[in-house]
Amino acid sequence: MNRDPRRLRLLLVLLVLVALALITIDQRGGRSPFDNLRDGTAAVLGPFQRGLGAVAGAVGNIGGGITGRDARRAERLRIEVDRLQQEVAARDAQGATEQQLAALYGLTGAGQYRTRAARVIAYGGSLGFEWTVTLDVGSGDGIAEDMTVVNGDGLVGRVTRVTPTTSQVLLANDASSSVGGRLEAAPPGEVGVVDGAGQSPMMLRLFSAQAQVTEGQRVVTFGSTYVPGVPIGEVVSVEATPGSLERRAQVRPFVDYSSLDIVGVVVELAEGDPGDAVLPPRPPDAPPPPPPPEAPPDDGGDNDGDGDNNDDNNDDNNSDGDSGDDG
Amino acid sequence: MSGRLAVVTALLVVAAVLLQVTVLARLPLPGADPHLVLVLVVAVGLVRGPADGMLTGFGAGLLVDLLGVSALGLAALVLCVTGYVAGLLMDEVERSTVAPLLVVGGLSLAATLLYAVLTGLTGDPRGTVGALARALPSGAAYDVVLAPFVVPGVAALSRRIDPDWQD
By C-alpha distance, which of A139, A180, A173, A327 is closest to A254? Predict the structure, then answer.
């Protein structure tokens, strides 16, 4: 059988047809009949991914420790090679982990999210192009589908599949990821959607074609599927879109999706939207956010809808009894 | 292929998938990641012929689809055809050391391109032209680097497990 070309071709056609049938069944909208199979496979291989992920993390840290900083010092210490090299690498690894945890809890503290810290053990895409990661926490740790995932820099993604010991996360820069976002500003700024684009900058699409957006403005999550107030990225260029129904801008994400390590899964929110509280304060030399739009000239009418004929901005936007927008 | 060989091949496929998404994906390499699973499928085809190649490719592809986000059967289709084509070239590369590397590189380019096209067709908006232009050549280069280890390894393993296997 191995050498008869006709039977080989027959087998090939058969396998191709089976594959096409599977694709058609799987692609039918809604929940695919194979999702249970996917969950099962992930559950079975999860423990192996965790084990290998831990090994991979250790190997990666040792490599970084030697080639990164002090090649000459490592060279001199080569006499006592095993013990000393491992000590340096272990301390580096722990320091890096602690740094990431501190940044993560800084962000989650500002937004009052309760998170479960986790480590990335696997990157998705055996044939490339998909931006997903696997974490070493699962349903046994309280993780559920659609939970928001963050790290010390901002939005990482959303949980898509959960097994007892692992979970899969769709990263925000994946081409199929769309995150509801809004521009930083007071009063709360324009709302739109941020689409992932792999390694290219993300695309922000604001719902209003007249929306004001400038370079340097930052974008946070709006709060539909994702937890509100999580920093997504910074606007780097605004597209001129005459005649379009939406305003588009390119956004450079705060998170480096290629080198994720420690992340946090938001398992519980505090009440309400933290607004812009989670964004770090602007560094002193950064461009200030754009000023609020110029007041229209005083033509004696009620232009800002507050019942009098003065065109000032004395509205109580945050319901605290005065007209200031303090946080 | 014999039962024992099938089991060992299956284990190799699982190991390759796990290694690729954990260890290989974490290495700070510029460009795309190496496709260990793809190289393994091509190796099986080159060493054991089109039948084993396409069956191994189909099974490996199913596993890749199950663990990833692509539609079930997409990677199975691509890797099945890849394994078949590799098997067709089995005789051509028999006594050469360079030819297997060329086959791996060429099939890597073709397979990842096909995969990107198919995921685009099934409504999965991945792989823009720019990303492809970057990912395809670097991925293929890493696969060629893996080939001198994987292909002889598969050959040696096949000879040990199934010494009476004849073409």
Answer: A173
